[in-house]
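Hey, sorry for the delay on this. The queue was backed up all week. Below are the sequences that define the complex (chains, strands and the ligand SMILES where applicable).
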Amino acid sequence: MESRYIDLLAYSVFFRTDQPTTCPKCGNRTEILLDLSHTLNETQLHECLSVNCKKIFVEECY
Ligand SMILES: [Zn+2]
């Protein structure tokens, strides 16, 4: 029950934009591939900078 609550907290932090975006998989810094934050979509496409991970993910901006 408690660890479930912590998971929820971590998830909400992931969607905040007041700190640099990190990879949801490995925690590494990411690079913005596509910035749509000033469009109706309000999203950014990120790629993980870790060569072992290279995860590409979408972050929503609010
Ligand atoms: Zn990563």
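The beta strands are 30-36, 43-48, 56-60.

I'll add it to the shared folder too.

S.
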